[in-house]
Predict the 3D structure of the following.
Amino acid sequence: MATTQGSLFPMIIFFIQVIAFCSFINGSNARLTWKRKVVVDQSGEGQYRKIQEAIDAVPKNNLEPTFILIKPGTYKEKVTVPEDKPFIILSGRNTSNTIVAWDDSGDIYTSPTISNTYGKGAKAVALRVSSERAEFYACKIISYQDTLLDERGSHFYSNCYIEGGTDFICGNAASVFQKCTIHSVSNHNGAITAQRRTKAEENTGFYFVDCKVTGVKSCTLGRPWGPYSRVVFIGTYMSSAVNPHGWDDWEKPTTHSSVHYGEYKCYGPGSNRSKRVGWSQSLSNQEATNIVTNAVTTVKSRIKQCHLHSTSKDNGAITAQHRMSAKDNTGFYFVGCKITGIKKCTLGRPWGPFSRVVFSQTYMSSAVLPHGWDDWGKPSTHGTAYFGEYMCYGPGAERTSRAKWSRTLSNEEALPYMSMKMMDGRSWVMA
Ligand SMILES: *[C@@H]1O[C@H](CO)[C@@H](O)[C@H](O)[C@H]1NC(C)=O
Ligand SMILES: *[C@@H]1O[C@H](CO)[C@@H](O)[C@H](O)[C@H]1NC(C)=O
């Protein structure tokens, strides 16, 4: 199934959606409760009236996923998710009625992006995200310039609406935008993104998957705030507001060889690449797949304290991790999770030959089959796939009948997958 062009993305997107869905379920369903769930409601029916108050109440160096549900309303506030507060999930129920807007033109954040290239735009950040991990669902973020300062960390935006003038999605985070609408109010080719990757080694970039780009007049997709600026649009609709040249070099031709501006399978009148700047790229299927896989695993794979519930009736695998070579820094790591199921399931099967999945300190109900892992009828992967378990418990965690090619990790082997250094995204397990 993993070999045809069409089947790769849906699988990855499906993975994202499952997680997104998981967040919604957990946020709203009393059966699966978050350790910390708070409600922000302007009308005073929740614990807080302002989004920032809810974020401020999260302890520093937070390790508990914290779900902040924002009730409908227009929140006229400048929201900051600080660096020392990871695992915050902000969710509206409906993009059209949960709005974070900021229209003050005061000097709120002195950003070097503002060089008045496009007239005197107001500096106004509606949302500043510096936390190592943060997720946003169904939020509408509106401001003029620098709407979303996606400063640093790994972030995930799903079903959001983001509107602004120039450089309105900027910063040096590694972020995936899935099914978001990006709306430019620029009158003359204002850049949507100003991604700030400064070195080739940095693992950052903005990845737009299945999004929609619209505008009132004309806009470009991005310009390089940093010399290694990386922005990719995949499967995205582009209206005629997108300038045929597509990308802008901010009058720095030296960046032509260092930036990475890619497009893959975009559609709509603004997506025609025949007049695009020569230093932007049309991605191959393989490149796009690698980018999405890597971006998604970087942003999403360190799942902590999640409840995985399998509804498989025929021994379905929970994971199908797609690591293709021993050099890929990818994998799915589950720490302190809980696995249940209605019938029987396995923990994973190798979508890629070097598939890597580790469960540590995870409860496994009897739904997990004794052999635990499935080789997808490819015994050749026994020597390459890395399927590990560490200190798991519960009736499904017994390893005496486990597939021999899966492994029980020693303390030493498990450590890299559990350390907070890795969990908080500052470093990554090297292959
Ligand atoms: C979202 O909110 C708008 C405006 O309040 C409403 O018209 C629409 O039906 C809502 N959509 C959903 C899916 O609830
Ligand atoms: C793209 O634009 C070129 C030149 O304007 C045109 O010849 C071509 O048919 C267009 N391609 C698509 C797919 O619309």
About this structure: The pocket of 2-acetamido-2-deoxy-beta-D-glucopyranose (ligand 1) is lined by residues 94, 96-97 (CB under 6 Å). The radius of gyration is 22 Å.
